[in-house]
Amino acid sequence: MLNKKHFKKIALFALIAASFTACKKDNDVTEPETPQNTAKEFKFLRVLVADELSNKLSQIDPFSASVTSYDAKYPLANLYGTASGRYAAVLYPSQNLVEVFDSGLSTHVDHIDVENQPKWTAITATGAKPTHFKTAGKESLIFNDAEGTLSLGVETDFNTAGAKFKTINAGLLPHHGAMANFDSGNIAVTATSTAGTSPTRVLIIDKNGKHIHESNLEVGAIHGNATDGGNAVFGAFASSAATAGGVLVVKSTGEQRLIPNPAGFGAFRLATIYYADAADKFIGFVATKGAYLVDIKTDKITPIYAGADAFQCKVDYAGKKLLVLTLDGKLRVYDLSTSQLIKEGSVISAVSATDTYKPVLEASSKFAYIALPSTGEVAQIDLTDFGKVVKHKVSSRPVRLTLFGFESSAGHND
């Protein structure tokens, strides 16, 4: 199944093969590529930003350094780029609403087309407290915490007037749930035995809610997950005692096992799980312990960054690097093929551990983007030279951030 990362790698390969670089406007004639010039972001990558207090949604076009505002329904939206690269899901958990924003960009393997101007799509979802989001291929999946259902959206419906996400009811009780899409089309989803309590099991269902594989392993409280298409990895405590943690690995065929945390890890779980597609690696993160490589082939969990001061940890858009931002304002960049540190340095002012809304990090293969609530800006930091920073003024209190679009500068007429 093609997902966002595959599209990006295809587009990037085409860009290199064509030996063209970005131009200032969509319809400009391209200039010959200058390989050593990394000062520009990819022409078709976009940054979407939500504000704590305002319902304004800001889209940054880093290549042209332009910012455009759009009216969202509510402030404090959760933002997620879709696997195809074209759209971003906009979740309002407190208002029981999901909208989808359209970048207007689409991939055609060797180039990117501008299909339309950025706009809101027609589709919505109205499940109760939409919280967890996952995406694969051209599908978007949301877990609705307050009712235990899932909402499924397909991109071919996004711009159809009156379209709604499909509701999947698998008979689950309401809980703070998580799910993962398998390449088979089935879904691994958490379950709880008591409404409103943390999930302790994972079962596999189809897109109609039919149970395909029941849970065969109960663990402690589950939080966070990712998938490589054949395996879903969930952060979990080992038991209800919550004295030790690990990750629950669920195969698409139904088998389940727990990989324990390293010896001496303590009563912590890796509450955020990522899958880096290009590197083919799982990463677990928890602020109190740091970032860890989860090797499901050897059933080992090993440290990448072991520290209690990391408050942001993200895989870059290309799926090759891991970025860790610590309270002292230092950014660390790791090569996920080796887990080795390749660059570190101070990029923002020190952050208070007690701040409700701290700076938020995302990254392309060229730049780190950090939303700064205190200044109303998004800092764009060159990953080859942390001293090169562009600050985009977006809104009064930017607190949510996602990337979408494509890591390509090859347009239709290039």
UniProtKB/TrEMBL annotation:
<feature type="signal peptide">
    <location>
        <begin position="1"/>
        <end position="24"/>
    </location>
</feature>
<keyword id="KW-0732">Signal</keyword>
<protein>
    <recommendedName>
        <fullName>DNA-binding beta-propeller fold protein YncE</fullName>
    </recommendedName>
</protein>
